[in-house]
TrEMBL record:
<dbReference type="Pfam" id="PF07687">
    <property type="entry name" value="M20_dimer"/>
</dbReference>
<protein>
    <submittedName>
        <fullName>Amidohydrolase</fullName>
    </submittedName>
</protein>
<dbReference type="InterPro" id="IPR036264">
    <property type="entry name" value="Bact_exopeptidase_dim_dom"/>
</dbReference>
<feature type="domain" description="Peptidase M20 dimerisation">
    <location>
        <begin position="202"/>
        <end position="299"/>
    </location>
</feature>
<dbReference type="Pfam" id="PF01546">
    <property type="entry name" value="Peptidase_M20"/>
</dbReference>
<dbReference type="GO" id="GO:0019877">
    <property type="term" value="P:diaminopimelate biosynthetic process"/>
</dbReference>
<feature type="binding site">
    <location>
        <position position="180"/>
    </location>
    <ligand>
        <name>Mn(2+)</name>
    </ligand>
</feature>
<keyword id="KW-0479">Metal-binding</keyword>
<feature type="binding site">
    <location>
        <position position="118"/>
    </location>
    <ligand>
        <name>Mn(2+)</name>
    </ligand>
</feature>
<dbReference type="InterPro" id="IPR002933">
    <property type="entry name" value="Peptidase_M20"/>
</dbReference>
<feature type="binding site">
    <location>
        <position position="116"/>
    </location>
    <ligand>
        <name>Mn(2+)</name>
    </ligand>
</feature>
<dbReference type="GO" id="GO:0050118">
    <property type="term" value="F:N-acetyldiaminopimelate deacetylase activity"/>
</dbReference>
<dbReference type="InterPro" id="IPR017439">
    <property type="entry name" value="Amidohydrolase"/>
</dbReference>
<dbReference type="GO" id="GO:0046872">
    <property type="term" value="F:metal ion binding"/>
</dbReference>
<keyword id="KW-0378">Hydrolase</keyword>
<feature type="binding site">
    <location>
        <position position="152"/>
    </location>
    <ligand>
        <name>Mn(2+)</name>
    </ligand>
</feature>
<dbReference type="InterPro" id="IPR011650">
    <property type="entry name" value="Peptidase_M20_dimer"/>
</dbReference>
Length: 409
């Protein structure tokens, strides 16, 4: 581990035995994970998943509220003494994939799969709620458990924020924490960094209009295809010449479409792609420059251009102080050998960013590469063959509970 390790596990601390207790809940954790995995649901409306979570929480001293705009679920645990509130989050939606893992609890829906591990997030958060309920006498304040639909591009966190999840305990939560499982990291390894952890994600759509005609007589047309092709190079050049290498951006043109057959010059061509940045300043710069570049290139070819940038998730930014605290907690709960300070952010995106824009907090990755597999060779998150080592889940359960216990001592 590269980072602070000065919070050891000592007898009598709130963390003594926490990981062992999380392991003792493994049968419950696995059962919920597999039930959700068998019946994945996509988007903002996940009634079966919501019902499974309610059943898993049954009997715990929780104040449970269901979402109105979505099938979210918020649960509040009151400690034995008054104090602030903290938020723990787990997302619960699946992806549009046909599973090919061969698991005996594989998805029964050929059009949906928990390929990003949200089934494990749900299970870990539910078991963390159980661990904390058993330790209510150690809590001076409240814990808000945020079971969130619609992370995969549907802005589910924003819906829950609008419906009051940050104030569910009666006062604004003072800090927040979440864990995301990764198939390409060693099982049980907790990884995070202060500052930007994951990128923003915006998409762009460009329509180039010229004048169609016969492919044998291009002089009588205004061909949008070479204009669109020139835009690809111009956009990549824009990134290297307008964006600082110390505050980087990634722009990828991922779809080009034009024409219907070999002997017709089409009237229109379309480009689409993604923009990823690690700061809101660079994000704003690229979003402003992209339409200008496309319009000016189009004008040089005599084409009309409409270029739109569709806002996606913001940059996921960990609070420096809280990230350092999570690193120390990880060393205390999991052992320093199981905690890693990430050198670089990931360019994927995450809508927990909406929470971290409003509340100081941290997001961490939890490795779950299957035994005997090289993490570099393992099927990755979002693959329809991805596998997660369920033995990593107690580490996530324990870290979620430790975060609340530490904050509400």
């Amino acid at each position: 581990m590269t980072g602070p390790t000065d919070l050891p596990t000592l007898p009598g601390t709130p963390f003594a035995g926490l990981l062992d207790d999380a392991r003792a809940l493994q049968d419950r954790t696995v059962a919920l994970r597999r039930a959700v995995h068998r019946h994945p649901e996509q988007g903002l409306h996940l009634p079966r998943t919501q019902a499974a979570i309610r059943e898993a929480l049954d009997g715990l001293p929780l104040e449970i509220t269901e979402g109105k705009a979505t099938t979210s679920l918020t649960a509040v645990l009151r400690g034995s003494r008054p104090g602030p509130s903290v938020l723990l989050r787990g997302d619960m939606d699946a992806l549009p994939l046909t599973e090919e893992t061969g698991l005996d609890f594989a998805s029964e829906d050929p059009e949906s799969m928990h390929a990003c591990g949200h089934d494990t997030h749900v299970a870990m958060l539910a078991s963390a709620a159980r661990l904390l309920a058993e330790r209510r006498d150690q809590l001076a304040g409240s814990v808000v458990f945020m079971f969130q639909p619609g992370e995969e591009g549907h802005h589910g966190a924003r819906f829950m924020i609008h419906e009051g999840v940050l104030d569910a305990a009666g006062t604004r939560v003072e800090r927040a924490f979440g864990v995301h499982i990764l198939a390409n990291a060693p099982s049980g390894l907790l990884q995070l960094r202060p500052g930007p952890l994951m990128a923003s994600a915006d998409s762009f759509h460009v329509r180039v209009t010229g004048k169609g005609g016969h492919g044998s007589a291009p002089q009588h047309t205004i061909d949008p295809v070479p204009a669109a092709a020139a835009m690809v190079g111009a956009l990549h050049t824009m990134i290297t010449r307008r964006v600082s290498v110390f505050d980087p951006a990634v722009l990828s043109v991922t779809r080009i479409q034009a024409g219907t057959t070999t002997n017709i010059i089409p009237e229109t061509a379309e480009l689409e792609g993604t923009i990823r940045t690690l700061s809101e300043q660079t994000r704003a710069l690229v979003r402003a420059e992209l339409p200008k570049v496309c319009e000016q290139v189009g004008a040089a070819y005599g084409c009309r251009v409409v270029a739109d940038v569709e806002p996606g998730y913001p940059v996921t930014v960990n609070d420096d102080r809280i990230a350092a605290e999570v690193l120390r907690l990880g060393a205390a709960v999991l052992g320093p050998e199981n905690v890693e300070l990430l050198a670089d952010p990931l360019m994927g995106a995450e809508d927990f960013s909406y929470v971290l824009q409003r509340v100081p907090g941290a997001y961490a990755f939890l490795g779950a590469c299957p035994p005997g597999v090289d993490p570099a060779e393992a099927a990755a998150n979002h693959s329809n063959r991805v596998l997660f080592d369920e033995d990593a889940m107690p580490s996530g359960v324990a870290m979620l509970a430790a975060f609340a216990l530490d904050a509400l001592r």
